[in-house]
Amino acid sequence: MSDLSTPGREQRPDPSPEQNLDQSRVPTASAAPPRRSAQEQAELRERRTLEAARATRAQENRQRTFYLLLSVLTPVLLLALWELTARFQIIDPRFFPPPSRIAAAATEMALDGELWSHTWPTLLRLLVGGGLGAVAGIAVGLLMGAFRPVNAAFGPLFAALYPLPKIAIFPILLMIFGPTELPKMIAVFITTFFVMQINTVSGVWAIDRKLLEAGSAYGATGLDRFRFVVLPGALPFVFSGLRTATGTAVVVITAVEFTGATTEGLGYLIWNSWQLFMPEKLYVGLVVIGIIGALLTWILTTSEKLILPWRRR
User: Fold this and answer.
1) Where are the domains of the chain?
2) Has residue 201 got a pLDDT over 90?
3) Hey, which of 65, 240, 263, 271 has its CA 20 to 30 A from 49?
């Protein structure tokens, strides 16, 4: 029987039926995984979106907690450092008494009523004079921003009066009205008025012209245009002006009470404590003024977040 195999070529046995069956079970590279349905893909996207939102919210909560701890621990550490350096006389305790002595003096003044007899007059002057000045400044600023003739009439006058130191006007007010409450409130009124007038005018002029055109397209004219377009558009600048005016008004009323035209107020308390060399009471007055300013600023910031939710940060 002759050999039919080709010389130099190895003869391979034919695969058995079992081997053919095993090879058919091995997945090939061309085999694709089963495709998800449209509903499964939508559920997967929604699940990923929720997971990303939860992760972002958790990160924001961690950051918020960290910032809160930082804002609390920083003043506590500074007060502790002040206390230790004053106790060990690294700094002169005659000029920088320890915070514990200042707190004891504040407690004593609060219990005997001395602290409140100076706090309420200052707070009243701020609220009445500053509140009326803010309302008048916003109203005039809206008119000057919305109507060019009004701005042309009063703009140069206000630009000349605004740089004048408000404390320099106070002696004139004393000559006219005498040593009463009216000059102090007018000084705060003037201070707040100019700050609010300038910020409100800037807010009206900063409104996007497209918003004005959109309001006109929807039929907003006259009072409606002023109410629904101009006023909301200027509100961010108004709130910024209110915060600035609050700080400026606190400075002015404190300086006005320094003059001796009154025997009540936190400014008078600070000045009188300096004259009598009672540093603990002097620092108590400074702390209370700082608390009032911070409280008013917090109220304005919270109100802005409620009234202008799109400005939340």
Assistant:
1) 40-94, 99-311
2) yes
3) 65
